[in-house]
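Exercise 7. Given the components listed, write out the predicted structure of the assembled complex. Treat all entries as one system.
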Amino acid sequence: MPGRVIVSRELADIFKILAHPDRVRLVEELGHGEKDVTAIAHALGLPAPRVSQHLAALRSHRLVTDRRAGRQHFYRLTRPGMAGWILDALPFLEVRGPIEGPAQLEEVRKLWAADHA
Amino acid sequence: MPGRVIVSRELADIFKILAHPDRVRLVEELGHGEKDVTAIAHALGLPAPRVSQHLAALRSHRLVTDRRAGRQHFYRLTRPGMAGWILDALPFLEVRGPIEGPAQLEEVRKLWAADHA
DNA sequence: TGCATATCTGCAAATATATGCAAATATGAT
DNA sequence: ATCATATTTGCATATATTTGCAGATATGCA
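Answer.
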């Protein structure tokens, strides 16, 4: 059964890269369009070196690509659909107990969007 | 910005749990319906204790629930849609370079389904 | 050239996860 | 009760990840 094993390993690698709150927020941030490292660092309230490391992790599996303009590196999602796909996982998570019904799901979506720039 | 931080942490937790090839295959296995631990262990070619630990991880965030019948524990996905959602990530992964176009995506889907029981 | 800004890389300590195996628990059958 | 089966739990070791910080590289401007 080599086929599934290979694919599941690749999928697990992607999940591993996304398995960090900062990187989840980073991907959602890039869901709105390309941004340079400093802008991302500011938006996320993180030191630039850390953002750079997170981006390196995402780059290692080509989840993001970069475009250099002068001394700034603008990053964007290789597959813009990824940001939306992540939000499709909202029904699976638990914020104060299981989410039952579309009403509570809407709650969580609002919670996510609450402080959007 | 507490809203997004909380949600992103929950999302990252889910990604962390799925960030293991065995658990990815396990979830896909349960996508076809409930199964008991031994059946899963056999299908995945893993020792039962390890499957049990993987299930405990999935259970810890209510990604699976169990039903006991005699000495067997039948597990199933709390949200059956999760199996399909994982497969939606196929366009994001790289099997021998980036996947370009629906043709290569179909390749990967076949690769996944290749040895299905 | 020299200086400031933007980004990246490397290191070390703390923390977390994976793996294999042994032992414990629970259920059902004789 | 005794025994076999099914599942879970615990422990020890190996490996990986996170974090903060320092230093290195690269670009643009005076």
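Discussion: Chain B is about 60% helix and 10% strand. Residues 36-38, 48-49, 51-53, 55-56, 70-73 of chain B lie near DNA strand D (CB under 10 Å from a C1').
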